[in-house]
Amino acid sequence: MAARTETRVDTVTARLRLLVLxxxxxxxxxxxxxxxxxxxxxxxxxxxxxxxxxxxVFESPFFDRQLxxxxxxxxxxxxxxxxxxxxxxxxxxxxxxALQLTHRFQxxxxxxxxxxxxxxxxxxxxxxxxxxxxxxLHDAHRRTRRGRxxxxxxxxxxxxxxxxxLPFHVITVLTECALDDPERLxxxxxxxxxxxxxxxxxxxxxSNTASSLxxxxxxxxxxxxxxxxxxxxxxxxxxxxxxxxxxxxYLISDGPVSDEQNLxxxxxxxxxxxxxxxxSPELLGARHPRFGDFAFGNVRTxxxxxxxHAARFQTIRGEIRxxxxxCERSCRYFRWCGGGAPANKxxxxxxxxxxxxxxxxxxxxxxxxxxxxxxxxxxxxxxxxHAASIS
Amino acid sequence: xFNHRDRRPLGQGTAIASLVAVVACALASDAIARQxxxxxSAGEQTLxxxxxxxxxxxxxxxxxxxxxxxxxxxxxxxxN
Lengths: 391, 80
Prior knowledge:
The complex is a heterodimer of chains A (391) and B (80). In chain A, helix 7 runs parallel beside helix 12 and helix 8 packs across helix 12. Chain A starts with 15 loop residues before the first strand and ends with a helix. Chain A has 13 helices and 13 strands. In chain A, strand 2, helix 2 and strand 3 form a beta-alpha-beta unit. Chain A is of the alpha/beta class. In chain A, the strands form two sheets. In chain A, strands 7-6-5-4-3-2-1-9-10-13 form a ten-stranded mixed β-sheet. Chain A has a two-stranded antiparallel ribbon with strand order 11-12. Chain B is mainly alpha-helical. Chain B has four helices and one strand. The longest helix of chain B is centred in the last third of the chain and has 15 residues. At the A-B interface, helix 6, strand 6, strand 7, helix 8 and strand 8 of A face helix 1, helix 3 and strand 1 of B. Strand 8 of chain A pairs parallel with strand 1 of chain B.
C-alpha cells in the first residue's frame, strides 16, 4: 500500500526553480532519438523577447531566492556568443537584487571553442556535454544530417574544457545497445576524466514515437543499473552518477519527494518566440490532438498570473493533478517519486492522468529497486569493510 | 594505457564529492560496522520498511549526512 503524503499541487505555494529559455529550436545535428519536431527551424529569440520574458518572470509572485536558467534548444551554441553576452548582461540588469541566477548550458560540444569556455568561466555557467559513451555507441545515434558521427568533435570539447580547467558534467542517453557492457561505459568515463554523469533514457516523446528500451530493454536496463551501481560503489569518488546521488538522498531524507514537473510554475519554459509553458519542458513546442499545443500564453501579452487563470491551463493542471493523485493511490514508489513526469505520461498513454509509464518504470522504479538492493547487499557484505581502502 | 584494476583516470587522481562515495566510506568505518546488520529477508518486506532499514543504518552511523542534505534532494529534478 502506498504511503500517504502531504504532496499537493498548488500555485500558491509553487516556487519557480528552473527557467528554461529556448534561444533557438535549431540543432546542428540530427540525433535519432530527438523529440523536437522543429529542430530544423533557424528562428532565434530576440533580445526584445528576452527582455519581456525577464519582466514576466521577475514581476511574478513565483520566484524564490535562487533561479536556475537553462539555455536549452535545439543546440544553444548555434546562437552566436555575442548574443549571449548581451542576453546575460540584460538578465543581470533586470534581475531583482535578492535573486541569484545560475546559468546552465547543455551542448553537443561541436561548436565549443576557447571563447565559449572563457565565457562560461566568466559567467560561472554550468556546462553539460551530451556524450553517449565510446565512439560506436555515440555515433550510432548522434550524427550530423549527412550521417556523419560526432564523437570526435565532442571529445575535442571534453579535452578543451579539461585543458581550461572548467568543470562539466556529461549526459548520456541510454539506448538498448548501450546496456550490454556497463563496465566498458564506466571505463570510458573514468579513462577520459569525466567525473559526473547523468543517464537519460531513450524516451517515447514528441517526434520520437518508439524506444529501443521498450519490452526486453527494461530487463536489460535493470541489469545495467545493478552492475553500474556496483562499479560506482566499489570505486568511491571516481564517478558521480546523478541517478544514484538523488536516489540515495531520497532514501536518507525524511520528507516525501515531489516532482517539479507536476508543480505549475516550478518550471517555466519560454520559446524563441516568447511562448510560455510550464510543467515538463518537453511540452514546449509539442502538439497533441486533444490539447493542441502547450503554449499557455506569450510574454508579449500575458503575465504568469494571467496564465494561472486561463481555462486550458486549468484543464491541463487538473488532469496532471489527477494523475499524481492516481499515482499516490496506486504506486508503492510514490513516496520516492512524486508522481512521474507529465510529458511522458501524455506521450506514452495519451493522457496526463495516467499512472505508470515506461519512463517511470526505468528511471524511477528500476533505479530505486537496484540502489536499494545494492545497498542491502553491501550492508551485509564483507566488501563494505574494504570500500574505504580503495577510495 | 588504462589499467582496469586501478580505475583512476590518467593524470586525475582526486576524488570528487559524492553522496554515494561518502556513504560507501561511512559504511566501511568502524562506527557503522558496529551497527546491527540489515535484515536479510528483504524480499518479504515492504519497500518502505526496506528503505527505512537502510536509512536508519546510515543515519545512526552518519547523522550529519541528513542535516547536510540540500533541499534539492527532496524534489525530483528535471533530467536535462
